[in-house]
């Protein structure tokens, strides 16, 4: 069972305890106006990896990054005029805007699934206060095991994730009860990526134009499986390596027996202790470092296809797939 704090009667205690846990790189369950979120520091790869691990998500989908206000959002994303208008009208509230990631943003690529865009929303009430106190954006998918319906009460969260998380901030039932509406501005048009807690009519009224519902230029959301190229480094990728040739980089997991390590341009341990959560947190960074070592090929030792290993192997298979 997780610890519960009733934030309706003790909001200061909730903020104090939650910021302490978030600072350790661990997730907390928190109420938003839409659904309960499983929230963690969006700038900390280990913290984000914990979210995926806790939810049992087989894939690194892009996560919505929650901000305290428009000013914080503007430090991480580039706003076009329509997005700004929507933000000013509906934030805080159940609207997520997919925007170009701003140069210098500290949001980690694990939260955006390596995309050059970021889904941002400013939640109402306590969640916004917590983010303001924490001072950094929180990545937060719904607080439920992958494949189950979203939690809209602290009891739902406890029943599903109570034995896997430390703290549940309890504000009773969520006012909206469905996830936020997600839109993206493309070529001056407003594309609806996910219907949700803010109606299309409300958005159309402020945007002054009808929403586009057809699939657009970025199939990322509708089909996260098509993101292969985002995970492909410059070097070729070779999986299940038992040896390394000169000119190859080596990325290991656990303590495997690998022949010819001294030939490698660089040797990196995703997790020497065999912790898949740590490995997931290191993955993209290490692929970039291996690439930067000048290797023609990155050789990966085998990674177990369980827990977060499934997501890691999914990315590695994409990276190793024939390129165009
Ligand atoms: O109401 C909500 O939005 C809840 C509460 C907790 O705030 N959060 C939520 O977050 O549903 P999450 O992380 O499960 O939503 C992820 C979805 C992705 O599957 C995708 O549809 C969209 O948000 N998304 C996030 N970033 C994106 C991006 N850069 N490009 C396109 N879609 C993105
Ligand atoms: Mg969900």
Automatic annotation (TrEMBL):
Occurrences of domain YrdC-like (ranges): 12-198
PROSITE patterns named in the record: YRDC
Coiled-coil residues: none
InterPro entries in the record: DHBP_synth_RibB-like_a/b_dom, Sua5-like_dom, Sua5/YwlC_C, Sua5_C, T(6)A37_SUA5, TC-AMP_synthase_SUA5
UniProt cross-references to Pfam families, sorted A to Z: Sua5_C (PF03481), Sua5_yciO_yrdC (PF01300)
Entry GO CC: cytoplasm
One GO BP: regulation of translational fidelity
Principal subcellular localization: cytoplasm
Top-level taxon of the source organism: Bacteria
Molecular function terms, GO-annotated: ATP binding; double-stranded RNA binding; L-threonylcarbamoyladenylate synthase; tRNA binding
Compartments it resides in: Cytoplasm
EC number: 2.7.7.87
Gene3D superfamilies: DHBP synthase, Threonylcarbamoyl-AMP synthase, C-terminal domain
Reaction it catalyzes: L-threonine + hydrogencarbonate + ATP = L-threonylcarbamoyladenylate + diphosphate + H2O
Chain residues that bind ATP: 57, 61, 150, 194, 231
Binding of L-threonine, residues: 34, 66, 121, 140, 142, 180
NCBIfam families xref list: L-threonylcarbamoyladenylate synthase
Job description of the protein: Required for the formation of a threonylcarbamoyl group on adenosine at position 37 (t(6)A37) in tRNAs that read codons beginning with adenine.
Family designation: Belongs to the SUA5 family.
Designated name of the protein: Threonylcarbamoyl-AMP synthase
